[in-house]
Amino acid sequence: MPGDVSSNTETSPGTNIEYGDTPAGKILQRLDQLEDTHYQYVHAHQDRLQARLDESKRLEEKFRTEAMELRSQILALAQSEETESENP
Fold it and tell me: Where do Polar residues bias regions lie (predicted)?
């Protein structure tokens, strides 16, 4: 029928059953819509989580680098102070 939205279900490889505007077809259309909506949300959420993870890793690396620089400066200062106290 013109204007009908058909919903196809593959029952076995290469075999499609057309349900069209039947009650089963309407339920399948709702299921298709539910799946599409869910997967869109899940994939968008995964993208947001991945972005947050990437940012977290970047910040961790920045912290690690800055902490190592500070540690080196503190050790150099401590060594310098020790040398000065040994040679008044």
Answer: 1-15
